[in-house]
């Protein structure tokens, strides 16, 4: 009889431990996603950004490939057309400014 009680207690302990570990992991992902979102923004001074002539604001663009109206927000590589910053496939999903531009721009 005591073996049955011991087995139930052990199972309960293991279930609670697994549930707790899953909760802590999920909370960590949520917190990290929110806390470090600004760190995932592409800097204009990064080598890839410089190679693609990326600018956060089209007003700063001085490149012969740039045409009026081209911004990250209306590029096929930008996947968040409703936000100020969004993921860009040219930068591995890192965040670029909606009003930015680079030479990888592709019209929708």
TrEMBL record:
Query: Could you tell me which InterPro entries the record lists for this protein?
Result: High_potential_FeS_prot, HIPIP_sf, TAT_signal
Function comment: Specific class of high-redox-potential 4Fe-4S ferredoxins. Functions in anaerobic electron transport in most purple and in some other photosynthetic bacteria and in at least one genus (Paracoccus) of halophilic, denitrifying bacteria.
Q: Name one Pfam family in it.
A: HIPIP
Asked if Transport is a keyword of the record, the answer is yes
Q: Which organism is it from?
A: Natronocella acetinitrilica
Q: Name one GO molecular function term.
A: 4 iron, 4 sulfur cluster binding
Subunit structure comment from the entry: Homodimer.
Q: Give the protein family.
A: Belongs to the high-potential iron-sulfur protein (HiPIP) family.
Q: Which UniProt keywords apply?
A: 4Fe-4S, Electron transport, Iron, Iron-sulfur, Metal-binding, Transport
Task: From the Swiss-Prot or TrEMBL record, give the protein name.
Answer: High-potential iron-sulfur protein
**Domain High potential iron-sulfur proteins family profile, residue spans:** 36-108
Q: GO biological process annotations for this chain's record? A: aerobic electron transport chain
């Amino acid at each position: 009889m005591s073996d049955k009680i011991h087995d139930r207690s052990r199972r309960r302990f293991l279930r609670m431990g697994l549930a707790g570990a899953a909760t802590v992991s999920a909370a960590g992902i949520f917190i990290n996603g929110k806390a470090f979102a600004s760190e995932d923004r592409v800097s204009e001074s990064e080598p890839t950004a410089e190679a693609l002539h990326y600018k956060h604001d089209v007003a700063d663009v001085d490149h012969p490939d740039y045409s009026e109206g081209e911004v990250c927000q209306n590029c096929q590589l930008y996947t968040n057309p409703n936000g100020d910053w969004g993921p860009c496939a040219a930068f591995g999903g890192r965040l670029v400014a909606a009003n930015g531009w680079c030479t990888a721009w592709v019209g929708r």
